[in-house]
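To: structure subgroup
Subject: Chain for Friday's discussion

All,

I'm putting the inputs and outputs inline so they're searchable in the archive.
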Amino acid sequence: MEVGDLEQTPAHLYGRYRHDPAMKAVEILSRAYPFFVRFMREPHIPPPDAGITTVRITERTVVAEDENVVSLRFESLDGDELTPWYPGAHLDLLLPSGRMREYSLCGDPTDRTHYRIAVRRIPTGGGGSIEVHDTLRVGDTLRIKGPRNAFPLALPGRGSPAQRLRFIAGGIGITPILPMVAAADRLDLDWSMIYTGRSADSLPFIDQLRSHGDRVTIRTDDDGGIPTADELLGPIEPKTAVYCCGPVPMLEAIRTAMRDLDDTELHYERFSPPPVLDGHAFDVTLSSTGERVPVSATESTLAALRRTRPAVPYSCQQGFCGTCRVRVVEGVVDHRDTLLTEPERAAGWMLSCVSRSEGDLTLEM
């Protein structure tokens, strides 16, 4: 065939039908169909930005004499009322670095014009508290999620069979307890509290709590040594509900001491990962690189992953926020959370902060 013959060939033989709009649409739909079917079969996962609110920092106050605890006040950008919350609730802060960290609300739930949190600077932590202290200033805007409540207060006569309340706070664990104390005092309930920490200088809001008089006992390690569980609990009578927040050793001691107490309740919140119980060592393989990460019998899957992937996302480290969720490509998971639904587990999702395995896992990250 001569070149001239090609020049005379009708256009539709080579180009017209190939670029026909109807045929192009059919081609696109045929390629998208398998992905659509797979999406419909998987459980619905909310998009990452679901439930996010942008607020402005309107106040920044140092609230401990050692200057290591700062309180931040957030208000809406347009002056509208914020979502209501109740004692024990917390916010998820989406920090400028990309980290997400949870901090308890410690203000007045009846005042919907603002939220308030308090953050202790922890140099050896995951970097969230340092970022809050060093980068967030009055006038800055910040994205938040929540409020959410994993530590709700059930008041005597209003949802709880208890007749009295005992509050125990260790250090920065005062933040969720503070609005609980205010609610109990406002309703004239029978309550008492002990507030403990390394020293009086390290305890935030100490003057505010001293205003309650002999209902609040302040005890510091530099004055009386590390307290025992019996000292923290005091003379617990039947029908007492104990609300406790602080370091893990303190919580574990209180849990042990209350096992033999009849007709009492224990409610608590950790600010640190819970200890691993009945753990077995196993290996995690990262599907993208083939790298093998050993997980010891006493550490979380998340902790092991962070050794080689420091930027892996996480927040609560207790199995109720979902930030550390990863997909399991191969292996059997020992699920130890209450957040994931059965369809999500069946689809291969796992919370690396608490869930484990008795055999090796391959994860998609």
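Points worth raising on Friday:
Residues 244 and 290 are 43 Å apart (CA to CA).
Confidence is low (pLDDT under 50) at residues 1-19, 32-48.

D.
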